[in-house]
Each structure stands twice: as C-alpha cells, then as structure tokens.
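Appendix B. Chain record.
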Amino acid sequence: MYSSLVRLQNTFGFFTTVIFVVAAVIASTDLITPRAPVVSTLKTNSVQVVRGRPHYYSSKKEEYAVIKFSLEADLSSLFTWNTKQVFVYVTAEWPQTAAAIAKGNVTENQAVIWDQIITSPSSDHLANIGPAARKKLKKSAAGKSIDPSRGKLVIKNQKPKYQITHPSGKIAETDNVVLKLHYNVQPWVGLLTWNQETDFFKWKKLKNGVSKKFTLPAIKVKKTTTTAGSSK
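Structure tokens predicted for this chain:
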C-alpha cells in the first residue's frame, strides 16, 4: 500500500496539474477576445530645447527637450476580465545621425516622455495614488469587474514627465522626430503583451499611433541690449 507521504505527493501533483490547466485555459481566452486599439489624435502642442540641468541629480549642464502634447486614444478593447492593468507610455523617436551610422550605430533613438498605469477595477488597490483618489476610483467602479471606459484617453496639452536628453549632450535642431504611443497589457494569468506591428488573429495592431514628423528647435539665445553713453 502507498504510504501517507506518497498519497500526499500524488494529491499535490494532481491539484498542481489542474491549476496549470485552468491557468492555461484562462490565458488562452485572451486570444479569442478582439483587440482594436486606435489613436485619433497624437500631436505636439509646443516643443522647446533648453540648456541646463534636466534632472536634480545632473552633474553638468546639457541640452534637453521639453515636449507638450495632446492625445486621444481608445484602448478600451484591451480591458477584459483577465486584465490586471495596462501600462501606457509615449516616446519621442528619431533616427541616428549619419556620423553615428557610419560608426555602425544604427539603433533608433528613443526616449519616454510620459507614462501612465491604468488599472482594472479588480486591481484598484494596487494603484499608486493617494487615498482620496483611490477611494474615488473604487467608487466609480463599484459593482464592475471590467471598466473599458478607463481605456479611453483624452489628454490636452500634457506636460512631459521626463525631459529628452542625448549622450552627446546636444539635441537641438534634431530632424525627423516623431511621437509614438505604446502599451503593455499585464494580465492576471498569462503572458505580457505589447503593441504589435501586424495583425494577429483577432488582435489588431494599433492604428495611427505615430505623430507627424517635427524638428526640435534651436536653443533660444537671449538678446542683450546695449545703451551707448554720451559724454559732455
């Protein structure tokens, strides 16, 4: 006969197998749920290049860009009963210079200027916000297991959370810069997924997620006025 230890091991192995099978089924349901995220507006409102210390811990002065932007997007289809939270962020991207490419550096420059974590009602307790804001968030989602309306973003003249810098310390008059919207879906069970470049089954790629190209301006030089004195 089997000993108590063997029986316990068999029972544990059975329930572990059941848990993994159930988790796999839950994760697979995301694949049959349509995703069709779309951006209706992604544009710059103002672009400025300043010379100074972009961060309080910066040891030297350098050029950095400050980009204000507007964003309207519908990411509601990313929220399902298995969605824990969606991480949304906007990047500024531009190609390498000819000199950098000649040295073999063909990687495109990318810098995050803004981000936000959008939680599902079931994970509001994990939101990194103040008690008052969390209470208001929970109240708005009372009785809801899914709240797709949270995926509808309307942001006007948003200030950047992060300034754009470059290892060279120079970034003024950079051409062919674009803003791009990215997202990362974090499920309760399953794999993390990012915005895709092509359609996959019922998952559609993000539409209109890239702004028009623009150029970072030159640093504004303060004009100095001199007054000529007269002598008698």
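Further analysis of this model is presented in Appendix C.
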